[in-house]
Specification:
With 100 residues, the protein is of the alpha+beta class. The chain has four helices and five strands, in the order αααβββββα. The strands form two sheets. The protein has a three-stranded antiparallel sheet with strand order 1-2-5. A hairpin with a 3-residue loop joins β1 and β2.
């Protein structure tokens, strides 16, 4: 069973756009455009192997995960897991302090 409090504390993209628009005193359309620009620029920077850092908030980076052997939990058979790039986020001091 899900914890109802956790479910009600989830902010989705449209709620974030509404909050940005209200805080910045701009239209929802402008807030949506700004958020999509931010997300697109973070994604393209990471795709190029770069790093994005917002002082106090946190930083995103890409890490390479090597190929490895794993197990199929249903059958127990060994399977090959391909190498891949994974996105990592490290919270900054201000964000960490705000949640602790």
């Amino acid at each position: 069973m899900f914890n109802q409090q956790l479910i009600t504390n989830i902010m989705n993209k449209s709620e974030l756009i509404d909050a940005i628009a209200a805080d910045a005193g701009i239209t929802k359309a402008a807030a949506k455009l700004a958020l999509e620009s931010f997300l697109g620029n973070v994604g393209s920077t990471l795709k190029k192997g770069g790093r994005v850092s917002l002082v106090g908030f946190g930083s995103w980076s890409v890490s390479k995960r090597a190929a490895r052997d794993g197990r199929n939990p249903q059958t127990g058979k060994t399977i090959k897991i391909s190498a891949k790039n994974v996105v990592k986020f490290k919270a900054g001091a201000e964000l960490d302090g705000a949640v602790n």
